[in-house]
Design a protein that fits this description.
Nitrilase/N-carbamoyl-D-aminoacid amidohydrolase; alpha/beta; single chain; 26% strand; six-stranded mixed β-sheet
Length: 582
């Protein structure tokens, strides 16, 4: 009979190694691990490169402090794992005696001794001077306390690492880091989008010119912060988790994926890409947020007109050029999640490129001409006997510039909608390359990664997110300036892909829509830009100016160059010959 996993204690060690002081680091870390094990912890996670410190100049320097795996260091810590029947994760620079290469490695030790290792896939600049890219893929280890995976620091910037772990059945991810804040800001989204526990171990001291920010933590599969350390000093963070509780939910979440559409994840179009936009552009965007009237197109159009008159059509506004206006998902249909097939059929409109059919198309065409602006809106599109959840971009002259049919349908969409089968990025004069997604697709990181690969400078997301569907950023305000104010999925999709995300959402209503319409920035965490969005209960128009292709250390060009598509991501779009049990 298969043993049922019981709830157990995990421990995250906020440990501060001293660079090059290997013996002292081992002794102090050994003491913290033993203290955690004596306290009942069954999984104990320590920081990235915790044995040696992090910053090494080159291969010659790291050679004096590295160890093979398994080796002397693993032999020391496996004694604790065997004695206390627990699982220990440690980080160190690994020397591969067969290739003479070095890796930034995480090691898993258990009651049986050394189990497995993970080599960091996505390297930060400092490591590229001595470390090779990880070549073991994303191993997941089946243990009596669940399926465990390990991820290291910059890996958290790339959705693929945690997604690979989820696809392979990981219940818990041990996250080792030396972070000044950036990678930590992504962990809530990674836990939520993959329904996994994340046990995160960071440092809190300074090494050379880098100041680590602490905040070692444990994240819940529903995106909640279970326990967190302070920003200073060494500390053991402990809490109880129950991995078996979320296996069915994760399996259901992963069923929403459409691997047959993800093959472009294997492409590495960087830095060579003659289709990318290379000219920064100043863009002025308006997002309209309103309380929807149920199944009353005329009432919703009237409300949009009123809000635009109040928020944009004033004398001062008329002197400015508006580049883009965005309206919510299924903009004039009312409450999208309350629409059944019969209602959808009545609300649907046909579209053609030679003219317009239906009140929504007529209204938005006139609106675009009146405002001299591009407009993005949503409608139920009818094509013969099929209905689609569709967004349309209308140009300043009233012509159709682009169309996208929602590819990842929500439960309420499936009642009436057929899924689209392609992703859309179009060049728009004065704006750049514009990508599209719709509403609940914010839960699907693959959609937005594919738009980045197609070199979207900005992505438009008409949405209808209710309060029950949204989750606020819970990362510490010491890390994220929008903690408690921004929706976690909207925030992460902009930051992890280095494009601006333009969201228009409803507010209020019977379903208590979330609001939060606005422009989500590329990197508010390090202050490179700011997000600008409306509150949850406000009807109105928020206008934001930004410049595409900002020049800083964190750009889409550099981000895409750090992806590892040469086989590493294959499990994301190649189906297993047999269903993988979670």
């Amino acid at each position: 009979m298969k043993k049922i996993i019981q709830p157990y204690i995990v421990a995250s060690l906020q440990f501060n190694p001293q660079l090059h002081e290997v013996e002292d680091n081992i002794q102090r870390l050994y003491s913290m691990v033993e203290q955690s094990a004596k306290g009942g912890a069954k999984l104990i996670v320590s920081p990235e490169m915790g044995i040696t410190g992090y910053h090494f100049r080159d291969r010659e320097e790291v050679a004096r402090y590295s160890d093979s795996v398994p080796g002397a260091v693993t032999d020391i810590f496996k004694q604790l794992a065997e004695q206390y029947e627990c699982y220990i994760v440690i980080g160190l620079p690994e020397y591969d005696r067969y290739s003479s290469l070095y890796y930034n490695t995480a090691v898993l030790l258990g009651p049986q001794g050394y189990l497995k290792k993970y080599r960091k896939i996505h390297l930060w600049e400092s490591e590229t001077h001595w470390a090779a890219w990880g070549n073991l893929g994303m191993p997941v280890f089946n243990t009596p306390i669940g399926h465990l995976a390990m991820v290291i620091c910059m890996d958290a910037y790339f959705f693929e690492t945690f997604r690979l772990a989820a696809v392979k059945g990981a219940d818990v991810v041990a996250f080792l880091t030396n972070s000044t804040g950036g990678s930590l800001a992504n962990l809530q989204a990674r836990a939520l989008e993959n329904c996994q526990y994340i046990v995160s171990a960071n440092r809190s001291d300074q090494e050379l010119d880098y100041s680590m920010i602490g905040n070692s933590a444990v994240w819940h599969p529903l995106g909640n912060l279970l326990a967190v350390a302070g920003t200073q000093g060494e500390e053991i963070v402990k809490t109880t988790i129950d991995p078996k509780q979320f296996r069915k939910r994760r399996k259901s979440l992963l069923k929403r994926r459409r691997p047959e559409l993800y093959h472009d994840l294997a492409l590495h179009i960087s830095p060579w890409n003659f289709r990318k936009n290379e000219m920064p552009l100043k863009v002025r965007v308006a997002c309209c947020q309103y309380k929807p009237y149920s199944s009353d197109k005329m009432a919703n159009m009237k409300r949009v007109k009123q809000l635009l008159q109040e928020g944009w059509n004033g004398a001062e506004a008329r002197e400015q050029i508006l580049d883009l206006l965005v309206l919510p998902e299924l903009s004039f249909c009312g409450q999208p999640s309350q629409i059944d097939f019969a209602q959808a059929w009545e609300l649907a409109e046909q579209i053609n490129t030679l003219g317009t059919l239906g009140p929504s198309m007529d209204y938005v065409t006139g609106l675009a001409k009146d405002l001299n602006s591009n407009v993005v809106f949503g409608l139920i599109e009818r094509v013969e006997n099929s209905l689609y959840n569709t967004v349309i971009m209308i140009g300043r002259d009233g012509t159709i510039l682009g169309r996208y049919r929602k590819t990842h349908l929500s439960e309420s969409d499936r009642i009436w909608a057929t899924a689209g089968n392609s992703f859309t990025v179009i060049p728009v004069a004065g704006i750049g390359n514009v990508g599209f997604a719709i509403g609940s697709e914010a839960e699907s990181p693959e959609v937005f990664a594919l738009l980045a690969i197609k070199r979207a400078d900005l992505v438009v997301l008409p949405s209808s997110c209710s309060r029950s569907e949204g989750e606020w950023v819970q990362v510490s305000p010491s890390i994220h300036p929008d903690s408690g104010k921004a929706l976690v999925y909207w925030d992460i999709r902009a930051r992890e892909n280095c494009f601006y995300l333009i969201v228009a959402d409803y507010t209020g209503g019977e379903l208590d829509y979330l609001g939060g319409s606005g422009v989500y920035g590329i990197d508010p965490v390090y202050g490179l830009d700011k997000s600008n969005f409306l509150g949850t209960s406000v009807e109105g128009v928020v206008v934001t100016n930004f410049k595409t292709l900002p020049e800083n250390w964190y750009t889409q060009e550099r981000f895409l160059a750090c992806r590892r598509p040469s086989g590493t991501y294959d499990p994301l779009f190649l189906r297993f010959s047999k269903p993988r049990r979670l």
